[in-house]
Design a protein that fits this description.
single chain; alpha+beta; Rossmann fold; Topoisomerase I, domain 2; Topoisomerase I, domain 3; seven-stranded mixed beta sheet; six-stranded antiparallel beta sheet; 23 helices; 38% helix
């Protein structure tokens, strides 16, 4: 008997495929049955080898050894995934396996994961490609009934491979170059560093901003409405106008301008716009939103989330009305739904995957049983579908202009003519949207008629600086970076892709270059001193969003077969080689690059400084360190953060509330800091109320 091997990206996805295919016999690392073997990767089973694999001299970091540009790329199997790789290698090369299906996630990354496993396993058997946008059983059956030739995705693989290798070349060489130049570990990345640069530039603009006061005079009309004058930079000029206006009892209406305006329904979600709205409305980080969406996808409640498209293909038009109706019922929308299908159909704007949608399975699911985060993300996706096929929102905007004491005053009013899609948005997301500000009613007047003045008032304001980045606005900045400088019609001008932007932001936070601050639901992202220092010493080509966006465009061209992969790689290698040979340490940069001192070492008395993985004694002979990933604090259900580290070094102790025992009980205790004879840190507990 011969078998077809199906390789998924995750165990949960593999189990879903196995169920549909009838492979019900569970083995170690795969399912078997009905002529199929269904196995899986665990993310990246095969990864690029570190520099020391190419040459032992690269264990030590030296500028003299740069640039590191492998001629023949080498790969390794990570220790944590070695067992599953061994299982895949064995089943791939079984003589009774005569066909293979690549069933990893349908995107650039999934293609790379599968092909690297094949190569590392020495498997040369032909394979076909499963390409899905939904995990519903019908979609899986249809996908397996119409498998694609692997050759259709060769260009996608080449793009993924060059992206991975380019990131390695830029990251390895730049990190070593700048770490050696400045004598401390510095992490540099092709996408990460330009993203950080945008945040640093935004904060610099905020710091440099000087607010300017301005003054206006407002007129209150007896019949309703308040009109405002122009802005005055001098208070005396506004006060003069105020005094003159107070002498007037009425004013003549010079112009009444009424315009009817239309606000089209919003487009469907791609991943980035979903992440932006989830951050703005729910306070979720981009990574949290992606995690919730991935879980919903695997539960067959939404379509494939890692999409950069906001439209559907023409062949989906016939089934869409049924999906809209089912979605409305699932969220207790009882009134008749307008369904304008053509508003969301445009196959020319669909790339690898169509826009995010709820599935038909969602309509039958017990949504109340979902975790709150998943339920809220699903509600956003459902609301967006119902709004996107809705009617336009129409309103009339009236601008009234009048003259008083020789100065022009204006007031605007708005009257809704047709709620359209906004009525559905309020029904679905009312609590999240908050109260909408309503414009005051205007007096019912005609041109040249008189309006009685009820009062006049001086108002003071000041110009505002740019706003700090939130996850919502930073994602938008990444998405649109360099758009102004790119040729018209170019896609994906931004830096990163919808699938990678969340991970980039998280990496910047984890490495201590950005920090989330604020007590509000939606926190701001601020560059740390460490982040600012890094960008200060980075040359333009490394921190430029324009260059990185240009690379993203070229990767897309490779994906479409419009550019030779090696042309792109040559550009990357030349840029890095030039960087290595021409870059010198910036004058005065060492003062910027100093690590933050947070206290004194209890073992030797030297300064303790913060680094990426913990708080270290500056004395290289001393072994004292407070690790951020600390097992002792983990056992208490706590984190060793900067506040705790500061208290321990200053007072030798820190009181912690609501520690958690192995049995799940909570208690309060004080952690005491001591040192071992060799200088390493040790901790002990002092319990309150005689213990826990």
């Amino acid at each position: 008997m011969s078998y077809c091997l199906v390789v998924a990206e995750k165990p949960s996805v593999g189990a879903a495929y196995a169920k549909v295919l009838g492979a019900t016999n569970r083995q170690d690392g795969y399912w078997e049955g009905n002529g199929y073997l269904v196995s899986w990767c665990v993310g990246h089973l095969v990864e690029l080898a570190p520099p020391n694999v190419y040459d032992a001299k690269y264990v030590k970091w030296s500028i003299a050894d740069l640039p590191i540009l492998p001629e023949k790329w080498q790969y390794l199997v990570s220790t944590s995934t070695k067992k599953q790789f061994g299982i895949l290698q064995k089943v791939m090369n079984r003589p009774d396996v005569d066909s293979i299906v690549c069933a990893t996630d349908a995107g650039r990354e999934g293609e790379l994961i599968f092909r690297l496993v094949c190569q590392q396993a020495g498997c040369k058997k032909p394979f076909t490609r499963l390409w899905l946008s939904s995990m519903e059983e019908n979609a899986i059956r249809e996908g397996f009934a119409s498998l694609k030739p692997s050759t259709e995705y060769d260009a996608l693989y080449q793009a993924a491979l060059r992206r991975e290798r380019a990131d390695w070349i830029v990251g390895i060489n730049s990190s070593r170059l700048f770490s050696c130049l400045y004598g401390r570990p510095l992490a540099v990345g092709r996408v990460m560093t330009p993203t950080l640069a945008m945040a640093v530039q935004r904060e610099a603009a905020i710091s440099a901003f000087t607010p300017e006061k301005f003054y206006t005079v407002s007129l209150a009309f007896a019949d309703g409405g308040t009109a405002s004058s122009k802005r005055f930079s001098q208070k005396a000029d506004a006060e003069t106008l105020l005094a003159n206006c107070r002498k007037e009892v009425s004013t003549v209406v010079q112009k009444v301008e009424r315009k009817e305006k239309t606000e089209k329904p919003p487009q469907l979600y791609d991943l980035t716009t979903l992440q932006r709205d989830a951050n703005r409305l729910l306070g979720f980080t981009a990574q949290q939103t992606l995690d919730y969406a991935q879980s919903l996808y695997e539960k067959r409640l939404i379509t494939y989330p890692r999409t950069d498209s906001r439209f559907l293909t023409e062949d989906m038009a016939a089934s869409l009305p049924g999906l809209v109706t089912d979605t409305g019922k699932a969220f207790a929308v009882e009134e008749p739904l307008p369904i304008n299908v053509q508003q969301v159909i445009n196959g020319s704007k669909v790339t690898d995957h169509h826009a995010l949608l709820p599935t038909k399975s969602m309509a039958k699911a017990d949504l109340a049983a979902l975790p709150a985060g998943e339920r809220n993300v699903l509600r956003l996706i459902a609301a967006r579908l119902l709004c996107a096929v809705g009617e336009p929102h129409r309103y009339a905007e009236t601008t009234l202009t009048t003259i008083c004491a020789g100065e022009e005053f204006t007031v605007k009013g708005k009257v809704v003519l047709s709620e359209g899609w906004k009525a559905m948005e309020r029904k679905m997301l009312g609590e999240l949207l908050g109260k909408q500000k309503e414009q005051a009613a205007l007096p019912d007047v005609q041109e040249q008629s008189q309006c009685s003045i009820a009062g006049a008032e001086l108002k003071e304001g000041q110009t505002s600086p740019p706003k700090h980045f939130t996850e919502d606005t930073l994602l938008h900045a990444m998405e649109t970076a360099s758009a102004d400088s790119m040729p018209e019609g170019v896609e994906r001008q931004g830096i990163g892709t919808p699938a990678t932007r969340a991970a980039t932001i998280e990496k910047l936070v984890q490495k201590g270059f950005l920090e989330r601050k604020g007590i509000k639901k939606t926190k701001v992202l601020l560059p740390t001193d460490k982040g600012k220092a890094l960008i200060t010493v980075m040359p333009e080509e490394i921190q430029s969003p324009e260059m990185t966006a240009d690379w993203e465009t070229k990767l897309l061209q490779i994906e479409r077969g419009e550019m030779e992969p090696e042309t792109f790689m040559t550009e990357i290698k030349e840029m890095i080689s030039s960087l290595v040979t021409t870059t010198e340490a910036a004058k005065g940069a060492n003062a910027l690059m100093k690590n933050k001192v947070i206290g004194v070492c209890p073992n030797c008395g030297a300064n303790v400084v913060e680094r990426e993985k913990g708080w270290f004694c500056e004395n290289r002979e001393c072994r004292f360190v407070l690790w951020k990933d600390n097992a002792f604090f983990k056992r208490l259900g706590k984190r060793l953060d900067s506040y705790v580290a500061d208290k321990l070094l200053r007072d030798g102790r820190v009181r912690l509330k609501d520690c958690r025992s192995a049995k799940g009980k909570t208690y309060n205790a004080t952690v005491l800091l001591g040192t071992e004879p060799d200088g390493r840190s040790k901790f002990s507990l002092e319990f309150e109320n005689g213990g826990c």
